[in-house]
Amino acid sequence: MSEDLLTTMLDDARERMHKSVESSRHEFGSVRTGRANPALLDRINVDYYGTATPLKQLATVNAPEARMLTIQPYDKTSIRAIEKAILESDVGLTPSNDGAMIRLMLPELTEERRKELVKVVRGLAEDGRVAIRNVRRDVMHELRQLKEGGEIGADDEHRAETELQKVTDTRIAELDELLKLKEEEILEV
C-alpha cells in the first residue's frame, strides 16, 4: 500500500511541477520580443463596466504585420477602456484608435529596453522556480507526516525524497532552458 501511495504522491508532484513550467512558458510568451505577437496582450485586463476583464474576451487581437498589432473590440463602446488599459500596462506601447479598431505599432527595441525585458523574463522564471520548489516542499512535508504516522518507513521516505529531488532538478533545468531561449530571442537584433 505504501508503494502505491508514494507513487501517487510522486506522480502528483510531477504533474504539478509540469504545470508550473507550462505556466512559465505561457508567461514568457506574453513578454515582447522584436516581432508582433498577439500573446503580448494576454496579461492586460480592461475595466469593463466595473469588472476587470481579460482583453482577449473583449476583442480580437491580430498581427497583420511584423511590427503591428490590431485590436478589434466586439463592443465599440469598450474601445476607450481598452486604450486606457494598454496605456496603463507594462507593454510600453501607445495605441492608435480610429473609432472602430486600435492599432499598436511596435517600435524597434532599444538595447536598454531589451535589458529591461530580460529582467522581466528572469523574474517570471524565478516565480516558476519558486512554484516548483513549493510543490517539493509540500510533498516533503506530506512524506514526513506519513513517516511520523507510521504509514511508511524511513527507507521509503528517503527513496521518495531522492526521487522527488530528481524531478525537481529536472523541471528547474527545463525552466532554465526556456529562460535561456527567451533571453536569446529578446537580445537578438
What's the structural blueprint in terms of helices and strands?
Layout: H1 2-29, E1 45-48, E2 51-54, H2 55-58, E3 59-65, E4 68-73, H3 79-88, E5 95-97, E6 102-105, H4 111-148, H5 154-187
Antiparallel strand pairs: 1-2, 3-4, 4-6, 5-6
What does this protein structure show overall?
There is one protein chain. With 189 residues, this protein is of the alpha+beta class. The chain folds into 2 domains: 2-29 and 110-187, Topoisomerase I, Chain A, domain 4 (Orthogonal Bundle); 38-105, 2-Layer Sandwich (Gyrase A, domain 2). The chain contains 5 helices and 6 strands, in the order H-E-E-H-E-E-H-E-E-H-H. It has helices at residues 2-29, 55-58, 79-88, 111-148, 154-187, and strands at residues 45-48, 51-54, 59-65, 68-73, 95-97, 102-105. The strands form 2 sheets. It has a 4-stranded antiparallel beta sheet. Strands 1-2 form a two-stranded antiparallel ribbon. The longest helix is centred in the last third of the chain and has 38 residues, at 111-148.
- Broad shape: elongated
**Helical element count?**
5
Q: Let me know the number of strands.
A: 6
Order of helices and strands: HEEHEEHEEHH
CATH topology of the largest domain: Topoisomerase I, Chain A, domain 4
Alpha-carbon distance between the two ends: 57 Å
Helix/strand class:
alpha+beta
Strand content: 5-15%
What is the helix fraction of residues, given as a range? Answer: 55-70%
CATH architecture of the largest domain: Orthogonal Bundle
| Superfamily (CATH H level) name of the largest domain | Ribosome-recycling factor
Radius of gyration: 22 Å
